[in-house]
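Retro notes, structure queue

What went well: the backlog is down to a handful. What didn't: a couple of records were mislabeled last round, so from now on we paste the full input next to the output in the thread. Example, using Serpin family protein from Saccharopolyspora griseoalba:
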Amino acid sequence: MRHHLDFTLALHHALAPAGDQDFCWSPYSVSSALGLAATATGGKTREQIVSALREEPAGLLDVLVPSAELAAGTGEAPVLAVANTLWAHEDLPVEESYRLALKDWPGSSVRNAPFLADPERARQLINADVAETTRELIPELLPEGSVHPRTIAALVNALYLKVSWREAFDTADTDEQPFHAPRGQRAVPTMHATRNLGYAAAGGWQAVSLPAAGGVDAVVLLPDGDLADAERELDAAALGGLLESLEQRRIALSLPKFKVTGGAELTDPLAALGVHELFTPGADFSPLTSMPLRVSTVVHESVLDVDESGLEGAAATAMMMRLTAVVREPEPLRVEVDRPFLVLVRHRSTGAVYFLSRVTDPS
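Corresponding output:
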């Protein structure tokens, strides 16, 4: 778990916008896409991805697979949908060994899309599949123009999670309370409950854990001081220690209802974690295919909605891949017009000849 926390915070610090802005992203979705990419790559390309993830794909699967198997608890049964899809042009040869390795990933499949013949249709197919998995919370992961005419494949993760609290907040207790936002105080709908909850306080943070169905917890991390400063300093050791020290306490909790979204292109944040070769013509995708590929862009979107009954969230990550081979032009057939010649000027479709000229001395 500590490796996953370390990756989560490292990429968060590289990815998140200024501390006075709302933002949301899914470490589960991004690490899934990176894990698929690590499985598809070799050499230095793979080494850089594994270094960013802080662990091998097999270790990552130990975290991701059980997390994709929620058990129903008290209250409404949890809903979790995970899709890990390799979208490929039908002429892209996919190694059988990669098809087999892909089966280890939750909700995995290999599907065809007409990337080279109809990039817009390929975009629509991927977006429709992500929208279906995310229950329409992410209706358009790939914006218009995001599938380049040389795009030939994409690795896509999509995630949807809806769970109810083990004990719901009473909607009758929700009222308007002041919230001290960076741009000034404002009144926001705030939920209230007094009950036994996981609690810890250390290193300038308080943590309150709200249990939900299926073994899911929502942990509220409240800094003693300014969030922007505290968030910058938070590392995996401190966060892991805080989570491990949660103990049951009687808590009178006031928590705002909220819905937060986030979207980002991940090339630069991943580069900050040392992932460079994946985006270059030197990328090694030999475990996936014999054709030379590189990742052109990594797109991510996420949304999280929390209210009295529970939480609902969705995320999706797409790695778009292009061919990197330089198309070799055939050697030109040399024609030197260095002696008298004729020129015929015509209408191509009807055959009408507008001019027929003889040129014997162009000087």
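Agreed that this is the format going forward. Reviewer comment attached to the example: The longest helix spans residues 119-133.
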